Amino acid sequence: MYENNDPSTLAYVGKSVLRKDTGEKLTGTATYVSDMVLPGMLYAQVKKSPHARARIVKVDTSKAKALAGVRAVLTGDDLDYRIGLYIVDKNILAKGEVRHYGEAVAAVAATSLEIARKAVDLINVEYEVMQPVLNHMDALKADAVLVHPDLGSYEFIEAAFTPVPKTNIANWTKLRKGDVEAGFNEAAYVVEREYDNPSVQHVPMETHVAIVRWGARDKVTIWSSAQSPFTVRNLFCHTFALPLGNVRVVVPAVGGGFGGKAGIHLEPLVACLSKQAGGLPVKLQASREEEFSLLPCRSALTYRIKTGVAQDGKIIAQKMEMFWDAGAYADYAVNVTRASGYSASGPYEIPNAWVDAYTVYTNKPYGTAYRGFGHVEFHWGIERHMELVARTIGMDPLEFRRRNALHPGSITLTGEKITSHTGDVVACMEAVARSIGYGKLTAAEKKRELASGRKIGKGIALLQKAPAMPSNTATAAVIKMNSDGSVTVNIGLTEIGQGSTTALAQIVAERLGFDIANVHVMVDKDTESDPYDWQTVASKGLIMSGNACILACEDLLRKGYAVASHVLKACVEDLAHDGENVYVRHDTENCIPWKSIAIGYAYPDGKGIGGPLIGVGSYIAQGLSNLDKQTGQGKPALDWTFGAHGIICEVDPVTGEYVVRKVASAFDVGKVVNPALLRGQIVGGMIQGLGTATCEGYIYDDAGHLLNPSFTDNKIPTARDLPMEIETIVVENSQIDGPYGARGVAEHPMISVAPALGNAIQSAVDADLAHMPIRFEDVWRAMHDNHPIDNWITKTPAGSCRSDPAARIHTPDSAISP
Amino acid sequence: MRINVTVNGIAYERDVAENRTLLRFLREDLGLTGTKEGCGAGECGACTVFFNGKTVNSCMVLAVEANEGTIETIEGESSGGMLSTLQEAFDRHHAVQCGFCTAGMIMSARELIHHTPHPTVDQIQEGLEGNFCRCTGYEQIIEAVLDVTGGYTAKEELLHV
What we know:
The structure holds 2 protein chains of 2 kinds. Chain A has 18 helices and 31 strands. By secondary structure, chain A is of the alpha+beta class. Chain A is globular. Helix content of chain B is about 30%, strand content about 15%. In chain B, strand 3 (about 50) and strand 4 form a beta hairpin. At the A-B interface, helix 1, helix 11, helix 16 and strand 31 of A face helix 2, helix 3, helix 4, helix 5 and strand 6 of B. Strand 31 of chain A pairs parallel with strand 6 of chain B, so a sheet runs across the interface.
C-alpha cells in the first residue's frame, strides 16, 4: 500500500485534520449505550461472591422472585452455557463453586434499577468457604489447590495454546532459539533477577454496559459498549449454538476501552435474563466497583531473566521465564502469555534464547487484554534488567542497548529478519537521549540539586510491539457514493476514542482526491450492515483498515471510471478525476460530475447506465504463520513498532519521594497520518503508563478480598500528575505495506514508561527497583536494603501509594532559592 | 416530592423520589444524557454540572436539594447548533477522544475560567484535577483552556527526527 509519496503532494495525510466525531461528543449528544433506554426495558443487577473460593451450598431466590416488578431471576443452576475466548472455562453464572471475589452468582432483571437492587439483596447464598490460592507462584506448587480441576476436559484452541491438565497452568508457551546453555558457558558475565508487578484496572470512563433483547425465533439484538462487535457476535453464537444471522451486535459511541472491552463480557448474562423475561430488552451496566472485580483486569506478572554477556557487552544467551497471573479464568491472559513470550526479549537481538511463559490460574479476578497486551508488564522487567546488566558489567546503559538493539539483518526471537523498513529503535533511543540530555546534568540541574537537596536522575527504556493477532486476521471497507458526490465509509473497526474515524477519513480523502468534508466515516457499528472486522485491538486498526480503505477507494474509482468512460466516450486509460468531476486528460472540459454518476447516470433521453457506486476493499494479514509449539519459531508480526522513553526525575534522597520532571517519547511510526491525533495517543498512553508506573494496582487481603475497588483507594493520574515537560518525537521509516507508509502506535506509548522511570530513579539515588509500581516507600526501601517488598497481598490495607500531595506540585526553578 | 428546577433556562416541575440523585434526575427524568456517570461516588467528575452557579458532582447531590435551584449542563453550553468558544477550543486542540469525560471537563473548565480568567498551567491543572480523563493525558485539554484564556503559544505537535 505504500507509495513513495512526496509529502508536499499530500492534501490530508500528515495534517492535523480536526476529529470527525467531536460535534456530538462536545455537545453531549453522542449516544453511548449508557445513555440508551428502549421501550419496556428492564434493569439487571448481579449477586456477587464475597469470597475468593467457596462451594455454593444453596442459593435461595424465593424472596427475590416474589418481589413485585422482578421479571427474571437466574442462578448458575439455571444455565448450562460456557464461554471463553481461547479456553472455554467460564460459566455465565458460577456453578457449584465461586473462583474469585466479585464473581457473578445470581442475577435479576426488574422494571427499575431500585427493584433490581432490592431483589439482589433478597437473594440468599449459602457458601462453604474454602482456602483460596492467591499468589500465582504458590499456585505452581505440587500441592497447590486446583482452580480448575477439570481443565483437561475443557475445549480450547489447540493451534496456539497448551493447557497442562491437573495443574493450574492454563497455557505454557515455549520458545527455543539456538543453544542457550552453550551461550551461558561462553559468557563472561551471567546476570539473573526477578521482576514483578500486580494486576491493574483499565479504567475506561464508561464502565461495561450491554442491552440485549432476545426476541422471537431466537433473534437476538445486542447493544454493547464493546471494542469488537464481530467477536461478540462470534463468541455469543458459539456459546448459544445460534447461526450468525440470528444475532445483531450494535456498538454506538464507546467511552474508552483500552483492551478491557475487547472480548465478550456482560452480553451472555444479559441475553439470558432477556430470554427469561420473555424477550423484553434488559440493560446491565457495571458499577465502578464491579468494573474492578466482576469484570476483568490486567494480569500480574513475575518475570525471571538470566542473561549471558560477552566481554564486549554483546548478549550471547538469555533465559526468560514468565509467570502470568490469569486469575480465575483464562480469557485473554493465555494469549497475552503467548504474545509476550515471542516478544519477551524486547527490541534486542538474542542469538541463543529460551522462553517459558506460563499462564497460571489463581482465585482472583481474571486478567484480560490491556493496552500493550503484556508488553507494559514484561518491558518493566526486561528494561530494568538491561540496566542491571549494563551496570554489572560496567558499561553505560545507553551504549549497552546500542550494541544489542535490533538493527537491519538482526534475527528476532521467532526467526524473523529485521529490515530497514521494520523501523529503527536506535534512532528512537538517540532522540529521547538528546531530549533529556542523557548521561549528565546541566549547570541549571546541578544548581537545582544543590538548592533543593534532591537528586536529579535520567533514565531511558526502549520498547517494541507487534499486533498479537491470528495469522489470517482480516478486515474490509465499503465506500458508498451518495448522490451529491460525497462518500460514506463503513468499516467494522470501532471508534473508542483513538481517532480511527478521522485518520481513515484522511486516507480515503487522500486516495480519492476528494474534499475531506465529503468523506463520512460511520462511528456507530452494526454487524448487520458493516463489513467484517476481526477486532479493534492490537494497534492494527490504522494499518489494516487503512489498507482496506485504500483498496475500496481504488474499487470505487474503477467502477466510476467504467461508467464515465461510456458517458464521455473515452477509454478508461484516458480518464482522470478531481473532487468534483471525472474528465478526459487531454480534453478536461469533456467531464462528468461525480454526483451525476453516483447512483447511476441518466442520458438526456432518459436511458440509465451504471447504478450506485460502491467500492469494496478487503485486506488480510499476509505472510504470517502460526508459531511452532515446541520452538516458538514462525512469523507472528504484521508490523513491529519500536519506540523509547526518556525520563528526568527528581528524588528526595531521604524519603524516596520523587517528581517526574520530563518525559520524552519517540516512536518509529512509519508515517504520521495526523500529528495532533498522534500526539493525543502518545501523551494519553504515556500518562496511562505513568499511572501503572507510579501508583496503580490491585491490593488483596490474605483471604482474597479486593481491598481497593474504587477511585478512593486506586488512584489514576489526574491533570495534576503531568510531568512538567512532555516531548513527543517521531521517526518515519515507512512501513512498506502500511497505508502511506504508516504503522500502528496505539498501545506503544504506554509501554516502557515504568522502566524509564525506574532507571531514572536508580541513576538519581541508586535505588535498585524490581517491583512496579514504584511507590515512594519502594524507593525508600530500595535505597536502604535493596530489597523490594511485595505487599499486594497483605493482611492490612496498604492504602494509596501516593503520599504527600505537596511533593507532586511542580515547583519552578525560580521558586527555589539558592 | 414535587420540585421546581430550572435547567439550561427551562423551568421543570417534577415529582421525584427523595433518594433520587440530581444526576439520575437529569439523565433519566429529563433525558439530558450529556452528563455522564463515571463512578457514582464523587471521585471522577464525569457528572459535573453547575448548581446555582457553582460546579458540583451531580451524583453526590439529591434532586430535591435542587428544588428552586438553577442547573446548567453540557446541553446548555452550545446554542442554536453553534459551539461555544470553549467547545471550539476543545475541538481545535484535539482535547476529546472517547468523549465520556468531556461534558464534565467543559463544566469544570468553564468554572475555572469564570473565577480565573487568565489561569496559569498550574491553576488549570488544579481546576481540572477533579475530572478524570483516561484517554488524552490532559495536555491537549490544558492547551484548549489556555487558548480561550489567552495563554496559549502555538507549537509543533511533534518533533520529527
